[in-house]
Amino acid sequence: MRLAISNVHVGMTLLTSVSSLEAGIRLTNEHLRLLRFLKVDAIEVAPVERRPFTHEEEHDLCEKILQYERHYNQWEERISPNPYEALEFIHQLFRQDYPLSAIVKFFTNQPLRKNHVIHHAIYRALVAKTLSKYRGDEHRLQFDYGIASYFADASYAKIRKWSHMRYFTKMERELLYQHPLVSMAMLPEDRTLRQRVGKLVAEHHERLDGSGFPNRLEERALHPASPLFIVADRFCQLTAPRTFRAALTPEEAYFYMWQNEAYDGEALTLLATLLGFYEVGRTVLLSSGVRGKIHHYTPSVEQPIVVSEPTQETYDLTRLDEVRIIAFQ
């Protein structure tokens, strides 16, 4: 399909070469900035890729999970985390780019596990890296998200007497709230890792409105890289089962996070775009009670043009301040 450049969103596949951009690439914010700089009016694109892992990809990822579990088991035996192991592990994990849809489908189909932090670390790393890539971040920052996810919950290994299959006591929960700081303290002090890795580890449970832990920091006090990592961490938590609740669907998790001010709007928009939530043809429910289908993209991902069913009335959500999409069908 041919779209005006203002209606093209990240994750779409370029079908015809434009300047230095070759056909077949999946567009990032960096690519879109280049196209706007070149004053390109319209381009041929395909929708965001939505597919599961291939058998080979799934096998490779399962091997990575088992490898990380071996590292984690060493920490339980009081062997200190090795930063060089972490660097090599994330380098291997990030060698291949996976569609976000494949990542989410794989991890949301996993059963409840006794030690969920092992899967969570890999899930969070891949989600954060993907969001960072399509935001147009430099490769070093994408890599640091992976390293931060590798270490963020390492402190759980110090409390292996706690079973993750039961509720915590009040005292245990108070200690649990300090785990980001304990994990940060486990990082090497020889500057093997960049300083912002420690900030990402310490702040991954904070919230932009100051409601998080351990330090109840507000947005202005957070490291600039932290808001995206917070979104990745919380989305992965919500879409995986825990002993005290069932997993939310990706759409439910997205709407839960979108409806308050605790999470970064740009990262959430990237998440929804790359998962194809707002693709043309999808049936949606509007806050006005109208049910319809997304008919056309607009410059704002969350405000497409919707045609109601069965009246065929058109709703341009960019012009309706009080009407928004509240559910996907």
TrEMBL record:
PROSITE patterns from the entry? HD_GYP
Cite the InterPro entries for this sequence.
HD/PDEase_dom, HD_GYP_dom
Q: Give the HD-GYP domain ranges.
A: 95-289
Q: Sorted alphabetically, which SUPFAM superfamilies does this protein's record hold?
A: HD-domain/PDEase-like
| Pfam families assigned | HD_5
- Name of the protein this chain belongs to: HD-GYP domain-containing protein
Q: What species does this protein belong to?
A: Exiguobacterium chiriqhucha RW-2
